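Data card: per-record layout.
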Amino acid sequence: MSSRTTESPLSDFDIFNLRVGIFQTAVSFLFFGVYCTLFIVTILIFMTGKLSLSKAQAGSFAVTILALFFSTTSLVLQIITNLPPSSLFQLDPSNRKHYNLIIVLSIMDRLNYLLSDGIVTWRAWILCPSNPLVKLAMCICMILSCAGTFLDTGLTAKKFLRNPENYGAKTSILLMVVPLLVTNLAATSVIVYKMIWHYRNMRKFSTDKTHISALKVQKFLSLLIQSGLVYAIIWTIYTVLTLLNGRESLVFQAFASGMPLISAIYPLFIIIIAASQNQRSNHRQLEGTEAEETGTLGLVSGSAIRQ
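The structure for this 307-residue chain is written out next.
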């Protein structure tokens, strides 16, 4: 009997995309589970009244809802675009709608990046409400972040529609990452400056009644700085690995799946930090320190540590 050779209905490129898609979906579900857990905690914080109702709090809540919409939409689109060709719901790769969904997925991911940068910028803005230089710097950084992100989205979509196998140059990712990273570092630098300024004033004017409250402010600012640095380090690792391996590598695909959700988790983490500090201040409240303790919630309640 003559041996028969069965050919796979999928090309090597399709098989590679299927494997990458499975890996991407696994990473996305991992971070989406973490995000949903923190989102539920954040909703409980708002419902239990641990953060006083204010315009700033309403803005924070709106950002969390918007990030949830972007993250959920991104996950659903990723599942659809990564389904095998034999699936009933999979669009034909030759169909333009398939590529359009991938482009929409890319846009959803990048909107999460901008939301996270917006939170970072707002955080620095309200800590220095009377400093025009800080406001100008934050506005410029945010404009550059938006410009770089949308320009990268447009160029990536153009290349993808011309040739889906063309991932572009490795350095093309810098167009989006550099403005986002600079914005985060600039905002974190503002908080470092504010922490130093507050520490000097604490040493000069602190009394026994206000010392504990002042230490809480320092701890809160320290947590904001640490979270900002961790977020910047993640972006740096993402960029370095992409430059070394390229966008077609499995390493890039893993980070590309996780980064939008990490960006969505970041604002929730900031809100939880603020609520934690608020709860502790309620347990150890001292007479005459209410105004200072309210300042520790400047990011969410809108009462900043004003200069």
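Known properties of this structure: The CA atoms of residues 239 and 253 lie 12 Å apart. The longest helix spans residues 208-245.

See the next section for split statistics.
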